[in-house]
Design a protein that fits this description.
Helix content: 25-40%
Bound molecules: inosinic acid
Strand content: 25-35%
Radius of gyration: 17 Å
Order of helices and strands: EHEHEHEEHEEEEH
Number of helices: 5
Strand order of the largest sheet: 4-3-2-5-6-7
Shape: globular
Structural class: alpha/beta
């Protein structure tokens, strides 16, 4: 089991970093009331922790998207399955993501959000796989720079499993996990 995946960031590392990000957002948005937008499903765990570390009035919105194939195949084109329930015109918007990989999904989402004329639009991602970036993007808040490995936990899934892991794991043997997706269940205990 241990050579199939290893802990990259433990729950305590994550807690500390999320607290720092919350403090940064609090400082930057003094006197304003930002709207945090989370992209389901992966980003919801991070959002839930992050917004409790923001000492400002904030509101929360959710979007759900589906991709046409993987990000590179779809060139980032996504279908919005569920949209925010509020008018974003003139609002300070922070898009909260679990992970930015090629950046193609995010750049599509950003252009869709920009079209609604917010007062400002920034991105806060827990993980940034910056080495894999295709779409040039400015990401204002980054939790951790992520190695080019498949990661799971803290909202991130492998075939819908493992979003509930408190730690973030890097999968080292994808073949073994594909053959037996339950292999990492012991990490849940
Ligand atoms: P992008 O368009 O390539 O930036 O894809 C971003 C999306 O791909 C994320 O929101 C995740 O849903 C998914 N993703 C990318 N890398 C990983 C990973 O290592 N683990 C789990 N999901 C990932």
């Amino acid at each position: 089991m241990t050579d199939v995946a290893r802990v990259l960031w433990g729950r305590e590392d994550i807690r500390r970093r999320v607290e720092e990000l919350g403090r940064a957002v609090t400082g930057d948005y003094q006197g304003r009331e930002p709207v945090l937008i989370s992209v389901l499903k992966g980003g919801s765990v991070f959002l839930a922790d992050l917004f409790r570390e923001i000492r400002l009035p904030v509101s929360v919105e959710y979007m759900a998207i589906s991709r046409y194939g993987n990000a590179a195949e779809s060139l980032g084109r996504v279908r919005i399955l569920m949209d925010v329930q509020t008018d974003l015109a003139g609002r300070d918007v922070v898009l909260v993501e679990d992970i930015v990989d090629t950046g193609l999904t995010l750049s599509y989402l950003l252009s869709s959000l920009l079209a609604r004329t917010p007062a400002s639009l920034e991105v806060c991602t827990l993980l940034d796989k910056s080495v894999r970036r295709i779409a040039p993007l400015e990401v204002r808040y980054v939790g951790f720079d992520c190695p080019d490995q498949f990661v799971i936990g803290y909202g991130l899934d492998f075939r819908e499993r493992y979003r509930n892991l408190a730690d973030i794991l890097a999968v080292q043997d994808m073949q073994a996990l594909e053959a037996d997706p339950d292999l990492l269940l012991p990490f849940l205990s």
